[in-house]
């Protein structure tokens, strides 16, 4: 790194000839050692490239490497000159001003980043930061150091594995469908559903109570999807939702998104200790959390964040025949992901319903099946005249957050396609909610779970998730809540829409 500063020290009064000589002697003598102070042996400190006294100002050009950085050095000079001139000439240093400050960081990477209070120029062999009109306060607030730290952090980032693997840029739209009818409803689905009593906020973050009208719509979409996936060869299985940590480790999910799961801690089977917990709770009239923590074992499980996890364990160490692909689907319960502060409305929740398809076979067949499962979603949307688009996904769950792959893994050219339904109530830009995620994993899980073909042929796996919760959000966003306005295909599945239970105080 290289730091170059053009700035000045402003004194309390004009500098006479005698004081000028004192400053010259200091800058050409003692200051040189001062600017090397704290610099590791063999490394260069800062140096004064040029200086000039004009009236009550000392104009300075300072150059440095990463040690005794130029902006720190000017503060050192201010302190030393204040002591030198104050005692003898009654001259103080009122302030420090930096007119121009350049930081050059050598790199072979080009980056695109904006940083407040400075201009960032990314060149072929370096990144240049340019600051103008900085005050002493800016220096002491570490404006420069924080900017440099941000750039270094960005340069040290490894490119996501998804971008390295994917042959088509993530975000590329490959297909889209425009609704043939005029979409007139444009209200926020969550707001209307809550107002009508179709949903009720649950105390847990990212959770809702779904009343009978909403539940019936969930089941209608689930049935419509299941009917279609059965036709292309999927058979139903029931997958566990409490997943041992060792399975998540083998999936490499713990590497990519460890902060996105709910961890489960089994309790100690010691009734007498729990009696103490109960007594303390009764006396204090609150839950003694610290006491409860002491009664729990270490985390041993997670609540299923992807829903397909048991499939790979089911095949672990087994021999399969790729000529007879294994095709299961599961719709037996909730999927859980910790969205933290990102949980909002019905389209981004911590607990949601999905129909999950998982399969294994030869690479060619696995990709064919993925295309069929995606076609299922497209056909359903077009039958219901729902506006949608399909794009190349930027976050395949098995690669999400990961930076490298040291194993000799085969990946597909496109790991993930994502289908989105249009949300008219988001006015500023054309937004959609992701309702279907169609993934091919290559040999990622085959390698992790030692799945083999009995003739030693290549085995790949794939999965497609149909987010029932989001399908309903996208449907209501485009059709509204009037049952009579809905397509016959949906109304026929529901029959008679259940009523909202009438309480005195709700909805």
Structure, described:
With 507 residues, the chain is of the alpha+beta class. It has helices at residues 17-28, 30-34, 70-89, 136-140, 143-156, 161-165, 189-196, 212-231, 245-251, 253-256, 271-284, 289-294, 309-314, 363-383, 444-448, 468-479, 488-494, and strands at residues 2-11, 47-54, 57-64, 93-106, 119-122, 126-135, 173-177, 199-201, 208-210, 235-236, 242-244, 263-264, 301-303, 319-320, 326-330, 334-336, 351-361, 388-392, 416-422, 432-442, 452-453, 460-467. Strand 5 (119-122) and strand 6 (126-135) form a beta hairpin. The protein is elongated and about 100 Å long. The mean pLDDT is 92.
Summarize the structure.
This protein is α+β, with helices and mostly antiparallel strands and 507 residues long. The chain contains 17 helices and 22 strands.
């Amino acid at each position: 790194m290289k730091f170059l500063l053009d700035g000045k020290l402003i004194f309390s009064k004009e500098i006479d000839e005698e004081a000028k000589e004192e400053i010259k002697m200091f800058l050409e003598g003692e200051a040189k050692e001062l600017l090397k102070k704290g610099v590791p042996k063999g490394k260069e400190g800062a140096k004064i490239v040029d200086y000039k006294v004009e009236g009550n100002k000392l104009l300075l050009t300072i150059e440095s490497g990463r040690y005794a950085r130029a902006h720190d050095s000017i503060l050192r000079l201010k302190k030393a000159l204040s002591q030198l001139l104050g005692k003898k000439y009654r001259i103080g240093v009122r302030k420090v001003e930096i007119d121009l400050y350049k930081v050059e960081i050598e790199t072979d990477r080009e980056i695109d980043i904006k940083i407040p209070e400075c201009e960032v120029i990314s060149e072929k062999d370096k990144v240049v930061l340019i600051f103008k009109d900085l005050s002493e306060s800016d220096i002491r607030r570490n404006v420069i150091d924080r900017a440099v730290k941000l750039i270094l952090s960005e340069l040290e980032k490894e490119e996501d594995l998804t971008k390295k693997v994917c042959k088509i840029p993530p975000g590329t739209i490959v297909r889209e469908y425009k609704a043939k009818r005029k979409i007139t409803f444009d209200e926020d689905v969550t707001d209307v559903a809550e107002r009508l009593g179709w949903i009720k906020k649950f105390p847990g973050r990212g959770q809702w109570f779904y009343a009978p009208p909403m539940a019936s719509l969930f089941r209608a979409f689930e049935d419509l999807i299941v009917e279609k996936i059965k036709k292309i060869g999927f058979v139903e299985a029931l997958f566990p939702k409490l997943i041992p940590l060792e399975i998540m480790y083998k999936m490499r999910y713990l590497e990519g998104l460890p902060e996105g799961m709910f961890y489960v801690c089994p309790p100690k089977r010691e009734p007498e200790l729990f009696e103490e917990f109960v007594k303390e709770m009764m006396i204090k009239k609150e839950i003694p959390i610290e006491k409860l923590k002491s009664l729990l074992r270490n985390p041993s499980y997670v609540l299923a964040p992807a829903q397909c996890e048991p499939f790979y364990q089911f095949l672990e160490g087994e021999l399969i025949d790729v000529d007879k692909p294994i095709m299961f689907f599961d719709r037996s319960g909730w999927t859980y992901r910790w969205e933290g502060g990102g949980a909002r409305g019905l389209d981004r929740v911590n607990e949601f319903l999905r129909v999950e398809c998982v399969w294994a076979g030869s690479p060619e067949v696995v990709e064919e099946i993925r295309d069929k499962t995606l076609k299922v979603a497209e056909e359903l949307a077009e039958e219901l005249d729902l506006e949608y688009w399909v794009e190349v996904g930027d976050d395949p769950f098995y690669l999400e957050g990961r930076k490298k792959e040291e194993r000799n893994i085969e990946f597909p050219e496109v790991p993930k396609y994502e289908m989105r339904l249009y949300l008219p109530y988001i006015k500023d830009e054309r937004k959609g909610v992701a309702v279907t995620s169609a993934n091919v994993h290559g040999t990622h899980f085959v390698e992790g779970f030692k799945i083999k073909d009995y003739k030693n042929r290549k085995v790949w796996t794939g999965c497609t998730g149909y987010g029932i919760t989001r399908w309903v959000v996208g449907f209501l966003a485009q059709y509204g809540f009037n049952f009579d306005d809905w397509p016959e295909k949906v109304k026929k599945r529901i029959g008679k829409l259940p009523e909202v239970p009438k309480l005195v105080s709700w909805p």
